[in-house]
TrEMBL record:
This is Lysine decarboxylase family protein, putative isoform 3. The lineage of its organism: Eukaryota, Viridiplantae, Streptophyta, Embryophyta, Tracheophyta. It comes from Theobroma cacao. It comes from the Eukaryota. InterPro entries: LOG_fam (IPR031100).
């Protein structure tokens, strides 16, 4: 393959990446949610994610970004819409869930998401949407329970933070939601990596925040951005009440 052919083949991907950046510029940076496409409305993690997204959208007053797919991505979108805050997404045609055969989202306006042909473009979008360009930006990455795709996105962003490719000037909070100890064995594995010396002691734990509950995540973000936040007991009561209202 010669250089000219390579450039021609890369042109559509570059254009799609530019479209991702244009969408972010139009809707604003914010909180990026990574999570399973298979945990639907009947799953307890769905309702927990919906509550979390709604409360974070209200706390940070920012755009909510997802892969615009089903499952926990849908829960994050729904929570932000309940808070009446903007949402944006980078959809991929082949998702491991119910909307896998269409490039169209079932209810989001077409101007709020981009249907990506290239995974690399989607990843560019999900990373850039969380990058803070000024002190006024309130962004975060929230990793929810998920499978292979979620882990891929989590560790790519973790590596970018580790290598100071993002967050070197303006740190970006990275939260892992360990609902029902979902990530306990993954965290054990990372401890084994420390024992073997493949990562330094405390290296990974310094790059993200593990949260077992929504109130813990909200309190962490409030402290990170120096925002007022109700005491934990009151917040837990409010979230339980909201949970009871979610069908």
């Amino acid at each position: 393959m010669n250089l000219l052919t390579l450039k021609k083949e890369q042109a559509p991907m570059r254009k799609e990446i530019e479209q991702c950046y244009e969408l972010i510029h139009r809707l604003g940076r914010g909180v990026v949610y990574l999570g399973s496409s298979r945990m639907g409305p009947g799953h307890p993690h769905y309702s927990q994610t919906l509550e979390l997204s709604r409360e974070i959208a209200n706390l940070l007053d920012c755009t909510t970004w997802t892969g615009a797919g089903p499952g926990l991505m849908d829960a994050a979108i729904t929570g932000a819409l309940q808070a009446k805050k903007p949402v944006g997404g980078f959809k991929i045609g082949r998702e491991a869930g119910e909307w896998s055969t269409s490039n169209f989202h079932p209810y989001l306006p077409s101007e709020t998401y981009l249907a990506c042909r290239f995974f690399s473009a989607r990843k560019h979008g999900l990373v850039d949407a969380a990058v803070r360009s000024s002190n006024f930006d309130k962004t975060a990455v929230v990793a929810l329970p998920g499978g292979v795709g979620t882990l891929d996105e989590m560790f790519e962003i973790l590596a970018l933070i580790q290598l100071e490719r993002i967050g070197s000037e303006l740190p970006v909070p990275f939260i892992v939601m360990n609902y029902d100890s979902f990530y306990a064995k993954l965290l054990d594995f990372l401890n084994v990596c420390e024992d073997w010396g493949t990562v330094s002691k405390g290296e990974v734990s310094s790059l993200w925040k593990i949260c077992d509950t929504n109130s813990e995540a909200l309190a962490y973000l409030a402290e990170f951005y120096d925002l007022p936040f109700p005491d934990e007991g009151k917040q837990e009561t409010e979230l339980r009440t909201a949970h009871e209202r979610v069908p």
